Amino acid sequence: MKKHQTTIFDIARELNISKSTVSRALTNHPNVNEHTKKLVLELAEKMDYQRNMLAISLITSKSNTIGIMVPEFRSSYFPKVVVAAQEEAALNGYHIIVSQSNESYETEVANTKVMLASQVDGLIVSITKETLNFDHLKVFQRKGIPIVFFNRVCEEMIVPKVIVNDYEGAFKAVEHLILTGKKRIAHLTGPSSLSISKKRLNGYLDALKKHDIPVDDELIISYDLSINKVNIYVKHLLSLKNPPDAIFAINDPTAIQAIQVIKQHQLKIPEDIAIIGFSDDYASALIEPSLSTMSQPIEEIGKSAIQMLVEQINRDVENWKATTKILETELIIRNSTVKNHIAKY
Questions:
Q1: Has this prediction a pTM greater than 0.85?
Q2: What positions does the domain HTH lacI-type occupy (predicted)?
């Protein structure tokens, strides 16, 4: 049996009115009286009418759709950003299409092609750990489709960005460890291709410098953010002749995995070795011991990215503004750095 999708012609025939009247009623046009509008909307719902967004976009040059591309969904950070962004998009009359790249550059490139084919009005992006070439994203600029980066951003593209103060957050995290009496602080950092890795590393280094603690390159390990690698590198740190008494991890998933390895070695946290993460992942408060971390205003990140993108969409290309919004982090102290600490929420 051939499928039939209800059209405005079906509604017009059923009500014996013109298709233009149906179209105006469905788009809440002021020239249609309330009684007719009510009849059209009720019948449209009864007949399961779905607006043809592709056809509408061809007429209006707008799809009222925003694309969101994220590198992964393993941590709670990106899903939380997406939820906040979706809520803000809806308030502005937009639907969203979400894709995650599983930390793969090739998948990210493929996802951009899907976004282009879907004729999104704008794109919000956080890049993968593998992304070094940005030609696939520059296509959007050439086509007059605005982009807003968040979290993991492309420094070479002059577009709006929503980030947190990664440098200051890292500085505060390491200084907190120092103020609890730790002196040999290791840092598990991400790939140097990511701006957040570089900024958090600089915050770590400057905190040591401020407190006259010498930098030991042996304690700084850059890795590809694969969780299975954390086991290898934490075991290596613990096997050193002079092991660290604290670890600052680039993110919470790294810190949480490090806690598991440390516990396997029968070491006490935080007495033998303290650990602090970054982002305040959902699991951070649930793990034992609970993880100290730098909390990010995730909801504000998602909302701000949408607001900045909608502003770009509503401007002519020549009036686009490459504003960078920098949000602050907050130190959340838990038991992984201060024993028997009572968290305040």
A1: no
A2: 6-60
